[in-house]
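Quiz preparation item.
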């Protein structure tokens, strides 16, 4: 960080601004921080990408000779849509735990290629959701706050 700051026009000002991002002392401040809002926006973009893929699967499923498995896909799509409207880390984390687990089976007399496409998309979506849950929302807000406070202490040492 020191090397990067040294390359800035006003390195001391840059360091103060960088440190101010970590200057939070409560969960409420953290939830409203610019950093957290940016983080949530990034995760919402990921969820929208998953939603886009699931909507493609739904379109394939409902096509003329598709596997007709809207019952399996719609609850997931609805829940993901709801999660993209969450405004806090805690809400997103909690809602990600409540995504319905469904199996895509589809009707028997359908185009097998389409059935397989829908299954692959749904499985990829399930994996992406699991990755979000285990990699992006694996810490409680208290744990994130503790890490933030610790980082702030380290940065304050750098500043002084």
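Solution:
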């Amino acid at each position: 960080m020191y090397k990067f700051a040294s390359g800035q026009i006003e390195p001391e000002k840059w360091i103060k601004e960088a440190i101010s991002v970590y200057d939070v002392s409560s969960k409420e401040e953290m939830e409203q921080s610019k950093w957290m809002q940016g983080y949530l926006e990034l995760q919402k973009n990921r969820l929208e990408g998953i939603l886009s893929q699931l909507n493609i699967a739904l379109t394939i499923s409902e096509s003329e000779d598709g596997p007709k498995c809207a019952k399996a896909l719609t609850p997931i799509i609805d829940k993901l849509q709801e999660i993209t409207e969450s405004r806090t880390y805690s809400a997103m984390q909690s809602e990600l735990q409540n995504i319905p687990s469904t199996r895509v089976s589809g009707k028997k007399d359908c185009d097998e290629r389409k059935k397989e496409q829908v299954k692959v998309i749904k499985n990829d979506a399930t994996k992406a959701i699991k990755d979000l849950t285990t990699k992006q929302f694996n810490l409680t807000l208290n744990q994130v706050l503790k890490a933030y406070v610790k980082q702030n202490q380290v940065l304050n040492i750098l500043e002084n």
